[in-house]
């Protein structure tokens, strides 16, 4: 069985069987990351499909493992989905405000009914910015090293470390009474 690098080489030459083999080998792993980043199955499936579609048009340069390269593509696609969803919500909010007058978003004060609510990991992750969510998922759920995370995200290792620190602090502040 060819390794991932050989599969990518064959894919670049149009080998459909190699593409199917790479999809079979990596899709479950990528789906787990995509689901953690997007928070729902539909968006996760779309992000994974877009990631593999990008494999057909992208060039693997060999600067990292194929899996790290794929995760980098996936993180960028997930960010695009997040921005699109944010714009759609903002647009719907403006439409509702124009039609019904101002809208009010109710929040639960810390320490009251919020501690009674059952929060899960997906809810916690969705409360973070895309950049902070990505570093938490890659480090805490996927176990990537700082070096691998820097390669995936296309940023210096110091940036990864500071984002991870800020993301952890944000989670601590927001969910202090939860645990």
Descriptive account of the structure:
By secondary structure, the protein is an all-alpha fold. It has two domains: 1-105, Rna Polymerase Sigma Factor, Chain: A, CATH 1.10.1740; 106-179, Arc Repressor Mutant, subunit A (Orthogonal Bundle). It contains nine helices and no strands. The protein is globular and about 55 Å long. The chain starts with a helix and ends in a 5-residue tail after the last helix. Residues 101-119 have low confidence and may be disordered.
Mind telling me the CATH superfamily name of the largest domain? RNA polymerase sigma factor, region 2, helix turn helix motif
Task: Give start-end ranges of low-pLDDT stretches.
Answer: 101-119
State Rg: 19 Å
Give the class from helix and strand content and strand pairing.
mainly alpha
Count of runs of 4 or more consecutive helical residues: 9
Number of domains: 2
* Secondary structure tally: strands: 0
């Amino acid at each position: 069985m060819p390794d991932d690098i050989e599969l990518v080489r064959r894919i670049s030459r149009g080998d459909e069987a190699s593409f199917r083999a790479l999809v079979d080998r990596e899709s479950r792993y990528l789906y787990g990351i995509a689901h953690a980043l997007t928070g729902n199955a539909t968006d996760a499936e779309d992000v994974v499909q877009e990631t593999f579609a990008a494999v057909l048009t992208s060039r693997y340069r060999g600067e990292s493992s194929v899996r790290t390269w794929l995760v980098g593509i996936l993180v960028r696609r997930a960010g695009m989905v997040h921005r699109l969803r944010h714009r759609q919500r903002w647009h719907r909010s403006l439409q509702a405000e124009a039609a019904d007058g101002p809208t009010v978003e109710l929040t639960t004060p810390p320490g009251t009914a919020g501690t009674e609510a059952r929060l899960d990991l997906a809810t916690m992750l969705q409360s973070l910015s895309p950049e902070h969510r990505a570093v938490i998922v890659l480090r805490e759920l996927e176990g990537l090293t700082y070096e691998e995370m820097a390669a995936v995200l296309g940023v210096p290792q110091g940036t990864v470390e500071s984002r991870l620190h800020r993301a952890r602090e944000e989670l601590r502040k927001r969910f202090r009474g939860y645990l």
